[in-house]
Request: fold
Amino acid sequence: MFIREAELFKGMPEHIQTEIFEISQREVLPEGQVLFKQGDTADYLYILEEGLIEITVQGEERMIFSVDEFDSVFGWSALVEPKKYTATSKCKKNSKVIKIDGDRLMRIFRNHPVEGLNVMRRLAGIVAGRLLGCYDELTKSDRHLSKVAY
Reply:
C-alpha cells in the first residue's frame, strides 16, 4: 500500500493508513493531462508515484515548478481554506499519482486529531520549503537585474 510509504503519512497507525488508502485512487495520467487549474475549487490532494508534473503559478510573473520526485505532494489547497488551487498542474510526461479526496481526508483527521495535526505540520513544512525556494529564485532574479542596471 503506497500510503504506508508516503512521507506525509509515515508513522501513522496502520488502521488510519488503511482509512486513507480506502479514500485514495491511483491514476495513470498521459502527458499533457491537466489535473487542475489555478482558481479551481480544490477537491484533491495528490502524491506523485512516478512521472513529471509541471506546476504553474500565474501572477505578475509566471513561475513554473517541476514535481518529479517520488512521494512529492501537490494540490495541498484541498486541505486548507479557501480550498482554491493556487496553481495549475499539468503532466509533462506520463505519470502515476495517488489522488486523495480532501474533504474525506479531513473527516479522517477530525476522527484522529493527533495524527491529523502531524500530517498538517508536515504539509506546512512542505509548503514553507517551496515558498523559501520561490523567494530564493526571486532574489536571484532581483540580484541579476540589479547587476545589469549597474
Remarks:
- Residues 143-150 have pLDDT under 50 and may be disordered.
